[in-house]
Write a structure and sequence with these properties.
It is built from three helices and no strands. The chain is mainly α.
Length: about 80
C-alpha cells in the first residue's frame, strides 16, 4: 500500500462527514492526496500507469509478453 492509498483510507470517513455537512472550506484543508480521485491503477509487475487492464491488473505490454510465453490460460496472441 503506497502513501496515497494510506491517506485516502485515513481521511475517508472525515471526508464523507465534511461533504455531508457541506463544509467545503474544511474539506479543502485536508491533504490533497487524501482525495480518492488521485488513486491510479498501476501494473502489479512493472508499476506502469498507462494501459493497465482491470481484469488482470497488469499492463498491455506485460499481458502480451505473458500470453506469448503461455502463462495466461485461455489467452493467445492474435495474428492475421
Amino acid at each position: 500500500m503506497d502513501n496515497i492509498e494510506r491517506l485516502v483510507k485515513k481521511y475517508e470517513q472525515q471526508r464523507k462527514d465534511l461533504k455531508k455537512a457541506g463544509n467545503y472550506a474544511e474539506l479543502s484543508r485536508l491533504p490533497r492526496n487524501s482525495n480518492p480521485n488521485r488513486l491510479r491503477r498501476l501494473c502489479k509487475m512493472t508499476g506502469r500507469s498507462r494501459g493497465v487492464y482491470r481484469k488482470f491488473g497488469i499492463s498491455r505490454i506485460m499481458i502480451r509478453e505473458l500470453a506469448d510465453k503461455g502463462f495466461i490460460p485461455g489467452l493467445k496472441k492474435s495474428s492475421w
